[in-house]
Structures are given as C-alpha cells and as structure tokens.
Amino acid sequence: MVLKGEAVYMLHTVFLLDWEYVSGEDVLQERPEFKNKVVQGDGAVQVVASGPDTQQGIMSDFYYSLITNATKSIWIASPYFVPNQAIKAAIKHAAIKGIQVRLMVPAVNDGFLTQYGSRSYFGELLQFGVEVYSYKKVFYIRNLLS
Q1: Domain extent listing, the chain
Q2: In degrees, to the nearest 5, what angle opens at C-alpha 47 toward C-alphas 11 and 133?
Q3: pLDDT above 90 (res 110)
Q4: Which residue has the higher pLDDT, 58 or 46?
Q5: HEC per residue, 111-128
Q6: 99: closest CA among 65, 125, 71, 76?
Q7: Which of 31-45, 64-78, 84-98 has the highest mean pLDDT?
Q8: Which terminus, N or C, of the chain has the lesser number of Cβ atoms within 10 Å?
Q9: What are 13-49's pLDDT values in tens digits?
Q10: CA-to-CA distance for 47 and 53, rounded, in angstroms?
Q11: H or E stretch covering 17
C-alpha cells in the first residue's frame, strides 16, 4: 500500500497517540512538526482511530452514520465483513430506499470463522438487492460510501 499526503500525517499522528497511551511517553510534545500541521491538496481523507484508548463500538457507530446518511451508493470492501444488527438493518434499509449497495469480500478469508461469519449474511442481504462480489487476488481493505 502506498499512502501520500494528509493520510500519512494523520496515520502517523494516530500511531504516536497510541504509542503515548501504551508507553506513557510524551512523544508528541517532542515533535514540533505535528503542531498545527496544514496539508495542501484537492481530496479528502478521514482516519478514524480505534484502539485501547477509544470507546467501545466507535467504528460501528461511524459506519452506521455513514450508511444511514448515504444518498446514492454504499460500497463496502472488507475481508472482515460481519455486521452487527444495526449495521445489517441500515444496509437493508438503504437498499430498500433504492440506494446502490455493493459488498466486496475475498473469495477465501484468512480464517474459517471469518469466512463463515461473513457469508452467513449474504442470502438475507441479497434478498434486499444488495450486490455481493468476491475477489481472488489480494487481501483488500477499503470502504467507499457516497
């Protein structure tokens, strides 16, 4: 994976915050380049940190918000797609409203339970018009919503 621009700065900052949390070191104070960083560009990136220092369920809440606010399409590509009840309901509701919903998962997961867990939702989602795709080449993580 190659990252450029603002995503690098944001991920580096998250790493340093995690390092501070685990080690107790004050590493951000020692790095003046991370103070009031302004990044130029014509795109947008959102890094959502989740880890031992964040509240439980923050990623689920974030995805739920993105799904329920989508107006045109929802594309989810994840090797670990195992939605909770709220996410599953939001996806079905979006499909019912006519929003294009696409799910892309690997043809083969890195674990039996993950693969079984993911696929156990496909039949139900397909009934609501969700498109499900699998890919064979690489282990790919990306989420696209609009």
Answers
A1: 1-38, 58-145
A2: 115
A3: no
A4: 58
A5: CHHHHHHHHCCHHHHHHC
A6: 71
A7: 84-98
A8: N
A9: 888 888 888 888 887 776 666 556 666 666 666 677 7
A10: 15
A11: helix 6-23
